[in-house]
Write a structure and sequence with these properties.
The complex is a heterodimer.
Chain A (H helix, E strand, L loop, with lengths): L3 H39 L2 E2 L6 E2 L10 H11 L6 H31 L5 H9 L6 H12 L4 H6 L16 H26 L2 H9 L4 H30 L2 H6 L8 H9 L5 H33 L1
Antiparallel strand pairs in A: 1-2
Helix pairs in contact in A: 1-12, 2-12, 3-7, 3-9, 7-9, 8-9, 9-12, 11-12
Chain B lengths: L6 H29 L42 E7 L5 H11 L2 E7 L2 H9 L7 E2 L6 H6 L33 E14 L26 E4 L2 H11 L10 H18 L2 E3 L2 H4 L7 E5 H10 L9 E4 L7 E9 L6 H10 L3 H11 L10 H6 L16 H4 L8 H16 L2
Parallel strand pairs in B: 1-2, 1-3, 5-6, 5-7
Antiparallel strand pairs in B: 3-9, 4-7, 4-8, 4-9
Classes of the chains: A mainly alpha, B alpha/beta.
Chain lengths: ~300, ~425
């Protein structure tokens, strides 16, 4: 007995790290290594003629010029990057809010009231994933052109003279494009969260005299809060780095977002390192809510236990 | 009770911290090993910048030899071409594949900066690339190009005489001319009031607030900035003067603030679709417009202006053989094919970009139905290259300044 205990201990000691190994390697390959490459380029040099980035792998030789340049253009007196960052926050906040406004009722209806149509509705919700994001956006370009279907519809068959230049650099168009592009990503996790909520609790609330609204406010909403946070994370994070929606539906510098700054920097000789600084900004901004989420779910688990 | 409270969890936290500290120290220990990993940089000496008044004859590549004469493309091989989108006729490629038994793999880029970034990685194996001459010097001095064997290129005899021994590549050691084009103003007379060509300074149209939200400029830093210089009567569109660049910056920012322009290279489809009525245009794209125009719109509404005195921006794109490719013989055969009168005509019919071949003149192009009479101003003639201004490669410092102004303009700050 005394001999067998240490052996069990050794097995216990290696079991979980071994199980975690594939995930750890995966994380290293797809996150830590690319992040280090980004840092090596951001703090690296520039080829003198081709103006291409020259990564520096040794942190002791890192050069902070590009990073300082970007920070100076965000916080300094010549802050011409700052409006794009503020714009990104506003666009993404507005788009995420609108996504939630659309997605929550859809997910709620599918989870609670769809009955035997639930499968069909779910298939319909997944359908947008079958078409590439780019193609869906390109379709909007045709619809929103000055003589496109949207303006034709608004003109009520020629009754009114409508010449709205939707694609000529309007923030509204970009926000609506983001909503259209990302709303399916919000519906699915919301559906999963709402579908999992125990019906017995809702019935108990009604039995105890709560109205429909009170049941929603005091039971459904708190139970779905973590699903809301997950779905917001799933949509907000890719929106933060999105540049394609803006390029296609606006093409104007007046609606540039941080994704466009990254794209422009990556493709401009001599400025590639600056893209790394923007990536770091997105990383910091996105890691904070992630910590909040992890903390809140841990707290939830502790309360549950 | 919370699982993470109590002395046991405190000990666990201390252990985690200790593990983190150990990991950090290990990372520091790895640092000297990382210093051994170095990326190859280039030692170019002084950058030579060709210009009409400073023609350059480049030395032969140290890495890539000229191929032997008398070879044939290897059947079943793949020719990798790197080009702008819609800048090479699919039919031309298909015919070449059928004739020589090779398959063509086309990759595209949006602008020369993006292309240079990918070519510099040297890992994509492109055989042919279509640059402008403002990047030829960099490509040659970084030793990315394979010198050409003229034995494979008899069709160079079809070229304009002035481009057989060009100033940017004396002896045509690395390049053949592909297309020629001018940069001017395009507009649709049914979508804007007035005629920009009748203005004392037609470039002022881009700052005329009646066209706000109804215009676009080219998403090409040097071309767009050259337009601002020409607006101000500065013919040196490759200026390195701080005063000139400050003027360009001020007027570009003013343009963005007051006009809300689209910055794109899709005007050849956007304008026919009615997205805006006024745009800075490459002549080849202007010639392309009727093809994209809805059937119920008269092509007569399309217009293109280039300074009638010829003092505007004229350029030519080239075709070069990249050393990184593995199919240089097929690359030479393809280069020769696109200089054939018939094939070049097919290609022109698709791209709208004119080949600098003797048989293509404004009258022949209109007569053969390549473009309507109202767009004949978009045809480039040999004389335009005598009076016009080419975009040149810039010294490194000036290049950085131009790019920074463009970055500020595009970031919308």
């Amino acid at each position: 007995m005394a001999d067998s205990e240490p052996r069990r201990g050794v097995g216990h000691r290696w079991l979980w790290p071994t199980l975690a190994l594939p995930g750890t390697i995966w994380l290293l390959v797809i996150f830590v290594v690319p992040l280090y490459v980004v840092l090596a380029i951001l703090f690296g040099g520039v080829d003198p003629i081709l103006r291409q980035p020259v990564p520096v792998w040794d942190p002791r030789s890192w050069d902070f010029t590009q990073f300082d340049f970007v920070m100076g253009r965000i916080f300094g007196s010549d802050a011409y990057f700052r409006p794009a960052l503020i714009r990104t926050v506003l666009y993404v906040a507005a788009a995420s809010f609108l996504c939630l406004l659309i997605a929550y009722p859809v997910a709620y209806f599918t989870a609670r009231f769809a009955g035997r149509w639930k499968g069909v509705l779910l298939a319909a919700l997944i359908a947008p994933f079958w078409i590439s994001y780019m193609m869906r956006m390109l379709a909007w370009v045709n619809l929103l052109q000055t003589n496109g279907l949207v303006n034709k519809t608004l003109s009520a068959g020629g009754l009114f003279d409508v010449h709205v230049a939707w694609l000529q650099g309007h923030g509204t168009t970009v926000v609506l494009g983001l909503v259209y592009g990302y709303v399916p990503y919000m519906i699915l996790p919301l559906f999963a969260g709402l579908d999992r909520a125990p019906v017995s609790m809702l019935e108990a609330a009604r039995d105890l005299g709560a109205s429909r609204w009170e049941t929603f406010r005091r039971v459904t909403w708190p139970l779905s809060r973590s699903a809301v946070v997950v779905s917001l994370l799933l949509t907000t994070l890719p929106m933060l780095g999105d540049y394609f929606t803006n390029d296609l539906l606006s093409g104007s510098p007046s609606t540039s977002m941080i994704g466009n700054l990254i794209n422009n920097s990556v493709l401009t000789p001599g400025q590639t390192g600056q893209a790394g600084a923007f990536v770091l900004i997105i990383l910091v901004v996105s890691v904070l809510p992630m910590f909040f989420y992890v903390r809140s779910t841990r707290y939830g688990d502790e309360v549950a236990s | 009770m919370g699982a993470s409270t109590g002395p046991a969890s405190d000990r666990a936290r201390r252990l985690q911290r200790r593990t983190l500290l150990r990991a950090g120290l290990s990372a520091l220990a790895v640092a000297p090993a990382l210093s051994a990993c170095r990326t190859r940089t280039h030692d170019y000496g002084t950058l030579r910048i060709p210009a009409p008044d400073h023609p350059v004859r480049w030395g032969l590549s140290k890495r890539y030899p000229v191929i032997d004469s008398g070879l044939k493309p290897k059947a079943g091989s793949t020719l990798r071409i790197y080009n702008y989108a819609d800048y090479l006729s699919p039919r031309v490629m298909k015919d070449f594949e059928a004739q020589w038994g090779v398959s063509i793999h086309l990759s595209t880029f949006n602008d020369a900066d993006e292309a240079l970034t990918k070519i510099a990685s040297e890992s994509l194996g492109f055989d042919l690339y279509f640059p402008s001459y403002d990047s030829v010097g960099k490509l040659i001095q970084a030793d990315f190009l394979r010198p050409l064997n003229p034995d494979y290129l008899p069709n160079t005899a079809n070229l304009w005489h002035s481009l057989r021994d060009p100033w940017y590549d004396r002896g045509s050691r690395y390049t053949i001319p592909y297309t020629i084009y001018s940069t001017g103003i395009g507009w649709r007379s049914d979508l804007i009031d007035g005629d920009p060509s009748t203005l004392a300074n037609p470039y002022d149209a881009f700052w005329d607030t009646q066209y706000r939200d109804n215009m676009a400029i080219l998403d090409d830093w040097h071309t767009a900035m050259a337009m601002v210089l020409q607006r101000n009567g500065i013919d040196d569109i490759n200026t390195t003067s701080s005063k000139d660049l400050a003027l360009v910056r001020a007027q570009l920012l003013d343009l963005r603030r007051t006009m809300n322009p689209q910055v794109t290279i899709r005007m050849y489809t956007d304008m026919p679709a009615g997205q805006y009525g006024l745009a800075q245009f490459w002549s080849g794209d202007a010639i392309n417009m009727p093809y994209y125009l809805p059937k119920n719109v008269d092509p007569g509404v399309l217009n293109f202006w280039f300074p009638p005195d010829g003092k505007g921006e004229v350029d030519n794109d080239l075709c070069v053989c990249l050393g990184q490719g593995s199919n240089p013989v097929a690359a030479h055969f393809f280069m020769n094919a696109i200089l054939d009168d018939k094939i070049a005509g097919q290609n022109f019919g698709y791209t709208g970009y004119q080949p600098p071949l003797k048989q293509f003149t404004p009258s022949t192009l209109v007569d053969q139905g390549y473009l309507p009479e109202n767009l004949s101003t978009a045809v480039v003639q040999q004389g335009d290259f005598k009076k016009g201004f080419p975009l040149l490669e810039l010294p490194v410092t000036a290049d950085g300044e131009y790019h920074q102004i463009w970055q500020e303009f595009k970031s919308g700050g």
